[in-house]
């Protein structure tokens, strides 16, 4: 009985970037994923089409942020998200961080002021440490002209919201992490579902943070 080898971080990043592109999370060269494993941090270069990267295009950094390996392709630069990914590695001991420019994440930042909130939605249970009846809260920070300038406000938001595994960026997208790439991917799928649900509920005249309000009343319907 052979034990199945888990894919290398390089192979995983290439595969997951294609998958996330298909979800609309990393289109237009934005967004990405970084994996931390065995003291090394793997990430895609800045400003490249994420669905077309190859394993040789990745940067490898140590846990202090120093570059250990550069891509074999010339003309690439390290990801502009690097300080943001390191926030989750250092402050939350994350094993992987996903940055998404998904439409539903961006729209969710326009529905709430300081933090995204929802309750009593089944997918909340997919976020570690949360149950169905909990109020799920994701802090929202204001966007900056340059991505690297988000680092300080993101770190403050992470420290102020120890239960959250994500930070939303207004009119921009979201950073989501997990203890490893599997949990980060699960969290990303659940958070995106909840952002989408909140946007659609708003369109229907309901509010994701108010489960007490009967939904049929909220949309002007009748209850038997
Ligand atoms: Zn971004």
Describe this structure in words.
The protein is an alpha+beta fold. The protein has one domain: L-fuculose-1-phosphate Aldolase. Helices cover 32% and strands 20% of the residues. A nine-stranded mixed beta sheet has the order 4-3-2-1-5-9-8-7-6, sandwiched between helices. It is globular and about 55 Å long. The N and C termini lie far apart (59 Å). The mean pLDDT is 92. Bound molecules: zinc ion (ZN). Zinc ion binds next to loops.
Secondary structure layout plus pairing:
Layout lengths: L8 H14 L9 E6 L2 E4 L15 E4 L4 E3 L12 H11 L3 E5 L2 H9 L3 E5 L15 E7 L9 H10 L5 E4 L3 E6 L2 H23 L11 H4 L6
Parallel strand pairs: 7-8
Antiparallel strand pairs: 1-2, 1-5, 2-3, 3-4, 5-9, 6-7, 8-9
Helix pairs in contact: 2-4, 3-5
Bound molecules: zinc ion.
- Uncertain runs are none
Q: What's the helical proportion of residues?
A: 25-40%
Count the helices. How many?
Answer: 6
Q: Kindly give the count of domains.
A: 1
Small molecules bound: zinc ion
Strand order of the largest sheet: 4-3-2-1-5-9-8-7-6
**What characteristic shape results from the CA principal axes?**
globular
CATH class: Alpha Beta
- What's the SSE pattern? HEEEEHEHEEHEEHH
Structural class given helices, strands, pairing? alpha+beta
Q: Please, what is the CATH homologous superfamily?
A: Class II aldolase/adducin N-terminal domain
Radius of gyration: 18 Å
Taking all residues together, what is the mean pLDDT?
92
Q: Cα distance, first to last residue? A: 59 Å
CATH architecture: 3-Layer(aba) Sandwich
In CATH, the topology is named L-fuculose-1-phosphate Aldolase
Biggest beta-sheet profile: 9 strands, mixed
Q: How many β strands by DSSP? A: 9
Query: Into which percentage range does the β-strand content fall?
Result: 15-25%
């Amino acid at each position: 009985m052979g034990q199945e080898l888990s894919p290398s971080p390089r192979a995983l990043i290439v595969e997951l970037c294609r998958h996330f592109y298909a979800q609309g999370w990393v289109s237009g060269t934005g967004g990405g994923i970084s994996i931390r494993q065995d003291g090394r941090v793997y990430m895609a270069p800045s400003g490249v089409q994420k669905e077309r990267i190859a394993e040789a295009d990745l940067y490898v950094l140590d846990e202090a942020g120093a570059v250990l390996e550069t891509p074999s392709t010339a003309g690439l630069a390290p990801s502009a998200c690097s300080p943001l990914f390191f926030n989750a590695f250092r402050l939350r001991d994350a094993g992987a961080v996903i940055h998404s420019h998904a439409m539903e994440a961006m729209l969710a930042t326009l529905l709430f002021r300081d933090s995204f909130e929802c309750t009593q939605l089944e997918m909340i249970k997919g976020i570690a440490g949360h149950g169905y009846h909990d109020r799920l809260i994701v802090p929202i920070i204001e966007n900056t002209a340059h991505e690297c300038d988000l680092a300080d406000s993101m770190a403050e938001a992470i420290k102020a919201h120890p239960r959250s595994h994500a930070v939303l960026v207004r009119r921009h997208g979201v950073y989501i992490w997990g203890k490893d790439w599997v949990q980060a991917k699960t969290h990303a799928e659940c958070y995106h579902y909840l952002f989408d649900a909140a946007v659609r509920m708003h369109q229907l005249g309901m509010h994701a943070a108010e489960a007490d309000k009967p939904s049929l009343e909220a949309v002007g319907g009748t209850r038997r």
